[in-house]
Amino acid sequence: MKRLVLLFAAACAFGAQAQEPLPLFDAHMHYNVEARSYLSPEQVVALWRKTGIRGVLATSRPNDGTLDLIAQKAKDIVIVPFLRPYRVQPDRYDWFNSPGVAEYVEKELARGIYRGIGEFHIFGADADAPYMAKIARLAKERGMWLHAHSDEDAVERILRHAPGVKLIWAHTGMSTPMDKVEQMFAQYPNIVGELSYRMDIEQDGALNPRWKALMMKYPDRFVVGTDTWITPRWGQVEELASFYRRMLAGLPREVAEKIAFRNGVAMFAVP
Q1: Which of 4, 46, 61, 168 is disulfide-compatible with 86, CB 3.0–4.6 A?
Q2: H or E stretch including 30?
Q3: Which domains are delineated in the chain?
């Protein structure tokens, strides 16, 4: 935690002197096997430095990509590893019913390095699968986060399996209607909304007033992400960072800093 706070303070101090952009915590990225043939771990870290990304929630398919990034030991970028329950791309469709995935997850958990589980995909009644319930309860018992790419129905089912479990809602539902998003945030204080692919955040070139009101109401419960789920997204990282900074400029500086970086600091205590 202290390290993240110092990194943020240093980044903000430098920014004040040199008009550098707001530092970011990328709370949704993937360094998948396909991207590893396109960008080396050294190039990924260099891209983050260039873009002003000072903290990252790292997930990969398989998890080797995340391990390679950690091995860079970048002192100026905090890398928070999550365990992704995918060995290969098809796992996303049936991971919650796969004995092979269950064995893989157990093996990966034994590393003792992961702060959460996900990003995983699950929708509707599939979230009542016994293994999903087991993962939710395990996360709650161990103080880990879940990172769920899910509709609101699945999120609510997950939260019933393990009331109080900490959950990052990938894309904040992506297409979930705003009325339902607002209801979910009021009802479940343990949800944090990740903002990638929420196409309605922008309205007429600026922050959508409805999103602004929600961010002002829950300034501690949103984070940003690039979601480099396919290799071409890596070429858009700088553009995505600029988009977030432009949208967050519509908020008071204190709130913008929280969503850009400080919430990531608070969520993951790093020695």
Answers
A1: 61
A2: strand 24-30
A3: 2-267 (3.20.20.140)
